[in-house]
Amino acid sequence: METPINETNTTPLAFENRIDLAELQESVFNIKKQLQKVIVGQKDMMDLLLVSLLANGHVLIEGVPGVAKTITAKLLSRTINVAFSRIQFTPDLMPSDFEFKKGPIFSSMILIDEINRAPAKTQAALFEVMEEKQVTMDGTTYKMEEPFIVLATQNPIEQEGTYRLPEAQLDRFLFKIIVDYPTADEELEIIMREQALENTTKASKIETVITGSKIIEFRGLVNQIKIEENLLKYIANIVVNTRSNSFLYLGASPRASIAILSASKAFAAIEGRDFVTPEDIKRATIPVLQHRVIVTPEREMEGLTSKQIIEQIIEAVEIPR
């Protein structure tokens, strides 16, 4: 068995935990190892997807076509022994196509491709399932199988034939992951790996390393991660500052505070710690907040992004000592 390491320090962890996180760390290490057989770069996306699994949250993945959004989600599902469905959202997709029949929504891991292409009624039906984790049909309620997670992709460039997700629905996603283009070296590596595939497929290289029941068990461990009261205040101060920032038209809701808390605990667990640090909170804050706040039109015209404003807020809020 390969010894999991703290990726920040690249040295074995030496402190004693109240909680045994060795198996969780090893599983995360092995899942990433499988994904890295195919996916070049995109370390942040992999980390955030794994944190979302452990923190029991859904994810919105945004990026231009061809930057490995869909393939990463599909390959992640192959590393976990759970039911998987892919739903291609289109303008003519209706709620009855997946909600009122035992169709593709009845899986543990759902990949929604181009979520902003379906009309508002269909989006609303999906978000109800995401929030309630159940579907009601003819008065009978059907629970979703745990672990239940939705990974949704969207293209930020193409606007024709798309339906913008309302803020209340965006708030249901734990993270918004923005996927950038690869570097020149990564681009070359992608081409070389594609050439080396020959008659094999990318998916055939990926092995299952964990069960759904283990994910549920690990979530229980993450819930036990300690966080000091001064760090809870730190989270609250960051979120409250989004509501008074003059560059933001809309600040984050209390759901954002809870999301930062959950994600911070998962980051700590992956690092092999049973306690949260300010660094864990910082790592969680941008992907949790960037889809939950709205930049004022004036600042948006100046080219400011929600990420840049959140970074300024983090810098301005005093770190607990």
Notable characteristics:
single chain, 321 residues, alpha/beta, Rossmann fold, Helicase, Ruva Protein, domain 3, 2 domains, five-stranded parallel beta sheet, two-stranded parallel ribbon, 14% strand, globular
Produce the secondary structure layout.
Layout: H1 22-35, H2 43-55, E1 58-62, H3 69-79, E2 80-81, E3 84-88, E4 109-113, H4 120-132, E5 134-137, E6 140-143, E7 149-154, H5 167-170, E8 173-178, H6 184-197, E9 210-211, H7 212-223, H8 229-244, E10 248-250, H9 254-270, H10 278-289, E11 294-295, H11 297-301, H12 306-316
Helix pairs in contact: 2-9, 7-9, 8-9, 9-10, 10-12
Textual characterization of the structure:
The protein is of the alpha/beta class and 321 residues long. The protein folds into 2 domains: 39-211, 3-Layer(aba) Sandwich (Rossmann fold), CATH 3.40.50; 225-316, Helicase, Ruva Protein, domain 3, CATH 1.10.8.80. 44% of the residues lie in helices and 14% in strands. It is built from 12 helices and 11 strands. The protein has helices spanning 22-35, 43-55, 69-79, 120-132, 167-170, 184-197, 212-223, 229-244, 254-270, 278-289, 297-301, 306-316, and strands spanning 58-62, 80-81, 84-88, 109-113, 134-137, 140-143, 149-154, 173-178, 210-211, 248-250, 294-295. Strands 3-4-7-1-8 form a 5-stranded parallel sheet. The protein is globular and about 55 Å long. The two termini are 37 Å apart.
